[in-house]
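Check this:
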Amino acid sequence: MLVTYFGGLLRWEKVKRGIALFGVEVYDTTLRDGAQSEHISFSVEDKLRIAEKLDELGVHYIEGGWPGSNPKDMEFFEKAMKTGYSSKIVAFGSTRRAKMAVDEDENLRHLLEAGTKTVCIFGKSWDLHVREALGISLGENIELIKDSIAYMRENGRRVFYDAEHFFDAYKRNREYTMQTLRAAQDAGADVIVLCDTNGGTMPYEVEKITAMVRKEIKVPLGIHTHNDADMAAANTIMAVRMGATQVQGTINGYGERCGNANLCSVIPNLKLKLGVECIPDEQLRKLTEVSRYVSEIANLSPQNNMPYVGSSAFAHKGGVHVSAVEKNPETYEHILPELVGNRRRILISELSGRTSILRKAREYGYDLDKDTPATREILRKVKELEKEGYQFEGAEASFELLMKKALGTYRSFFEVKGFRVIVDTREKNELVAEATVKVRVDGIEEHTAAEGNGPVNALDNALRKALEQFYPTLKEMHLMDYKVRVLNEKSGTGAKVRVLIQSGDSSSSWGTVGVSENIIEASFIALADSIEYKLMKDLEKG
């Protein structure tokens, strides 16, 4: 089935020419392949937070990393396996090493220790890599593939086999490449994933080769593409058309070199263009939110012109476009933006902004009317803050506090009378930061100092130390993450910065944001919001 516009409404059309109408499983590798992007370095907490969002999105599999490659990935698996996600967590690794017995191979042992029910193992399909990268015979490589998959199956694991460099290999030595796939199939692989590892294959090649493989291999096929020729999403779609039932990719297309297939394009293309079921409609409406959330955690600016989820994807500016879209969105939009959780932006109108505020308010349980003074005040404040550089994706706590202030339901728990931070050099040239904070609570002033391993840590310690005697539950709270983004780089050291802070306690976590030309002030704004939010939630719990 295919979703299209018809008189401003949605309708379903039958898809012809043999396009697949089966369901497809979505396999997300943002935490592993996406983390190999040049400018990304996820902490364990980052990975857990992203995994939670991916689970909400409804992806079937979340590849958590390569256990054994670094302590961070093992810690992720230890924590993730206790969370009870609906999505299945997958551990990634390679076939056994040459000259190493399968039950003695450290890589395979770590895969088992990760505790996942499903593992993904990659192996060599290209004879070039077998001879020059591994330095072994073609026959030995076949044994690596068979032994590794069979060993995982014997230990009760489902196995996805990533056929690395498959399309390049197939074009150069079809006979041997297919031999590697048959070895994986015979060893018990549950899914065989065709990989365009170098990202240079064209869509017509993927279409033809996948169709030929489908005739010979009976195990379900998957597709894993890279974007070096800007064809990753198109190649993924072509593979699905030819029978692939698992798609692998990353949120926002993050990945090594030019990135991976962008699931933020692949998922809606499958569901809305091909009519292929992959995630439920309700989860599809979270796609834009997840895209922007992951970009915030990655500390990268969202790409405004990204299809489906970019802030400009449904933006219309003046003239003929605006006039036409206001009469009938079908004139300049290929889908309803709400289907993917995005929104139409009429850049010369405030109406769309007001609608956005109402939608965001509903997410937090506030039922507002677009013409009430509170709505207008929230809209005015949001526009004012966004102009200054604020962004509330990933800072949901700051936005909820803003709404409560506009609605008159906000309670002030403390007043900051002033703060100071000093960075000093002590013995052995060690830098130590000291912060002093003066606050007032119910007419009582408290002046406190604290040290930290940096100015922000010192401020956090001082502020909470001053308030803990009034609000003992703040002892449960801790700073989980801290990120800084320069907003106007051309201004050099005088540029504005946006600080995003993630805080948490024993039961939840929340994000807050601050903006200023002074990084300490921006940090303090975000810190104060984080404490206000904690106290507000504690009060609501009673």
In short: Residues 66 and 125 are 20 Å apart (CA to CA). The longest strand covers residues 415-425.
